[in-house]
Protein 1
Amino acid sequence: MPVEGAIEDGVSREKRITEMKLEKIEDQIGEFEKENDMTSEKFREDFEKGNLGDNKEFMKWDMLLDAKEELEAKKKELSRF
């Protein structure tokens, strides 16, 4: 297999993995939104202002939002190939 083909295969695989991870995280974020009757945007605003305290579940929600942003950036970068 030529080098270009191997690179394309690797990028394609990485795109699929990134998409799967993104879907899983989006599902988890959706559950937090549903359970708390709040959008992630409203949550992030209130959480960053310190209005929600240090609830362990809220910290997890915040980390999921960070992970989503990172995966979206990775997806955008991979789309350039």
Protein 2
Amino acid sequence: MLRIVTKLPPSIGALTATFADVDDEGAREVGAALARRGCAAETLWLSHNAITDAGAVAIAVGLSKNTSVRVLNLDWNDIGIAGERALEAAVAARAAPPGTVVQRMSCFCWAYVPLTKT
């Protein structure tokens, strides 16, 4: 997992690593990849892994430096309150893309969804 993430081209649009034994070291690699200039990833699906607070914080740091991610799913990991707070802060601090609003889909899943006209 780690070598795959560090070798991903910046233009990749999605990373799906569900049930992939991603741990905090892998999450740190994901966070570093998100923070890299030119990272174009829009979807991160990292559910059902072994990411704890430390990994969630690393992803949150990368997410705070990234403007391309539209969907983040970290459900079914071992993330506690500290990781949840770091992720919530990173998501809240980002400006939603024009015409969208951030929506929390579940405990650890956020997505930018189109604004509906009423």
